[in-house]
């Protein structure tokens, strides 16, 4: 099993539960706030590490208490944090408003937007079995990482969240694209081609739709008691990358990732809800 290199955002999350979302100019009471580590990059790294993956995290934090906490948290999952840099900015912050199991998220990127010129991405990526990326860091870093991975024949997984303008020429360099249903509709229609093997559209309660060159296939969702959907997409991506790093074939890897994502929604919190390998294996046996 090779290394999973995750290049992406590192945040701290502030989460509260609401009976209903406020209107413009309205103040509503929420339940107690929960402060916990987050960021799509860090979440996906933790998801893969909790399953037993050999994970390397590449990202940026601020020289503040949140940054120290985020780094300590990644260390606690035995994630290689050698390539995490700190700058004199605030660590990325996400405010998560939960309502009846669904969520709305506001992200202040902070240090995630400040990447050094001397970061040796080529040296980091050439040791990888797979590279996992998201769109919460500068696109220039994402594009550079994809080009390096392509040059060395290393597969990439790109979660295009939040959606931005992506050139088709860039998207066709990605091995596996993993948009959710809303993001999929905002992407170009002709993204399948070039080096792209599949587009995996995650659809929440409807499961996952796999688009390959000449066909599409629906993988149904797992029926669970949803308590918090925060981090489910990140769990899917981390689990999918983990399965691929073990040599699992595409459709089986999607089934595995789907199971992991479903389990993650049965607990409160993004990273705390992410399952361990034995949890998934037990459910798959059932």
From TrEMBL:
Question: What activity regulation does UniProt give?
Answer: Activated by a monovalent cation that binds near, but not in, the active site. The most likely occupant of the site in vivo is potassium. Ion binding induces a conformational change that may alter substrate affinity.
Q: Which terms in the GO cellular component ontology are assigned?
A: cytoplasm
Annotated positions binding substrate? 11-13, 39-43, 136, 234
Q: In which pathway does it act?
A: Carbohydrate metabolism; D-ribose degradation; D-ribose 5-phosphate from beta-D-ribopyranose: step 2/2
Catalysed transformations (reactions): D-ribose + ATP = D-ribose 5-phosphate + ADP + H(+)
Q: What are the alphabetically sorted keywords of the record?
A: ATP-binding, Carbohydrate metabolism, Cytoplasm, Kinase, Magnesium, Metal-binding, Nucleotide-binding, Potassium, Transferase
Keyword Nucleotide-binding listed? The answer is: yes
Q: Which InterPro entries match?
A: Carboh/pur_kinase_PfkB_CS (IPR002173), PfkB_dom (IPR011611), Ribo/fructo_kinase (IPR002139), Ribokinase (IPR011877), Ribokinase-like (IPR029056)
**Source superkingdom:** Bacteria
Residue sites binding K(+) per the record: 228, 230, 264, 267, 269
Annotated ranges, domain Carbohydrate kinase PfkB = 1-276
**What are its GO biological-process terms?**
D-ribose catabolic process
Instruction: Give the residues annotated as active site.
Output: 234
Q: Which cofactor does it need?
A: Mg(2+)
Q: Could you give the cofactor binding note from the entry? A: Requires a divalent cation, most likely magnesium in vivo, as an electrophilic catalyst to aid phosphoryl group transfer. It is the chelate of the metal and the nucleotide that is the actual substrate.
Q: Which family does it belong to?
A: Belongs to the carbohydrate kinase pfkB family.
What function does the entry list? Catalyzes the phosphorylation of ribose at O-5 in a reaction requiring ATP and magnesium. The resulting D-ribose-5-phosphate can then be used either for sythesis of nucleotides, histidine, and tryptophan, or as a component of the pentose phosphate pathway.
- Subunit: Homodimer.
Record protein name field: Ribokinase
Organism of origin is: Listeria rocourtiae
What lineage is on file?
Bacteria, Bacillati, Bacillota, Bacilli, Bacillales
Gene giving rise to this polypeptide: rbsK
């Amino acid at each position: 099993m090779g290394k999973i290199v995750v290049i992406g955002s590192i945040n701290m999350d502030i989460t509260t539960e609401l009976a209903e979302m406020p209107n413009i100019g309205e103040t509503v009471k929420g339940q107690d706030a929960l402060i916990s580590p987050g960021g799509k990059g860090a979440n996906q790294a933790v998801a893969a590490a909790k399953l037993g993956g050999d994970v390397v995290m590449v990202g940026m934090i601020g020289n503040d208490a949140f940054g120290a906490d985020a780094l300590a948290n990644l260390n606690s999952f035995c994630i290689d944090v050698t390539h995490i840099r700190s700058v004199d900015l605030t660590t990325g912050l996400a405010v998560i408003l939960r309502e009846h199991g669904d969520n709305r998220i506001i992200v202040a990127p902070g240090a995630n937007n400040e990447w050094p010129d001397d970061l040796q991405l080529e040296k980091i990526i050439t040791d990888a079995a797979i590279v996992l990326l998201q769109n919460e860091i500068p696109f220039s870093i994402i594009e550079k990482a994809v080009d390096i991975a392509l040059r060395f024949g290393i597969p990439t997984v790109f979660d295009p969240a939040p959606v931005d303008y992506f050139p088709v020429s860039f998207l066709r360099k990605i091995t596996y694209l993993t948009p959710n249903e809303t993001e999929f509709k905002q992407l170009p229609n002709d993204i399948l081609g070039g080096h792209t093997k599949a587009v995996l559209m995650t659809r929440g309660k409807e499961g996952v739709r796999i688009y390959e060159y000449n066909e599409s296939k629906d993988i149904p969702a797992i029926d669970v008691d949803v308590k918090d959907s925060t981090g489910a997409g990140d769990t899917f991506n981390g689990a999918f990358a983990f399965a691929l790093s073990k040599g699992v074939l595409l459709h089986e890897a999607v089934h595995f990732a789907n199971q992991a994502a479903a389990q993650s929604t049965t607990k409160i919190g993004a990273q705390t809800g992410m399952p361990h390998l034995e949890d998934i294996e037990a459910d798959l046996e059932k």
